[in-house]
Design a protein that fits this description.
Layout lengths: L12 H4 L3 E2 L2 E2 L2 H20 L6 H23 L6 H14 L27
Helix pairs in contact: 2-3
Length: 123
Amino acid sequence: MEQQGVKLHETNEGRDSQQGIAGFEGANALWFILAFGMALMIFQKMANAPDASIPMAMLMASVPLVLVSLYCFGLKQGKPPSYDVELFEWLIIKAAKAPYFAPNKVEPVALPWVDDPTKDPPI
C-alpha cells in the first residue's frame, strides 16, 4: 500500500514582504504615524479655538502629512539608506559655494612612523 504524506515547501513570504502602513515601508511608517499624531493635535487645537475655521484647521493639519509623504516617497523609499543625508550635505556644500575636499582645504597629516618618499633616505 502506498503511503501518503504532506510535502512542505518553504515560500519565504515573510522575508520577501516589507512591513508598512499606507504605502510607507519599514521605519518610514513610524514617520507617518508621528506626522498623523501631529496632524491630529494641530487639528484639535485649531478646531477648538474660539474663532475656529474647520477648513483652515484641516489645511494646517495636512501640512505634516504632506511634508512626511514628500520626504519618505522622495528621499527614502527605494533609495540607498544614506541617500537623504548625502543629498542634504551636497546641497549645503553647493549653497556655500565651497569645495568639499579641495586641496587647499585639506591639511597634510604628519605621521612619525611613515617615511616621506620625497626625502632622501639617510646614509
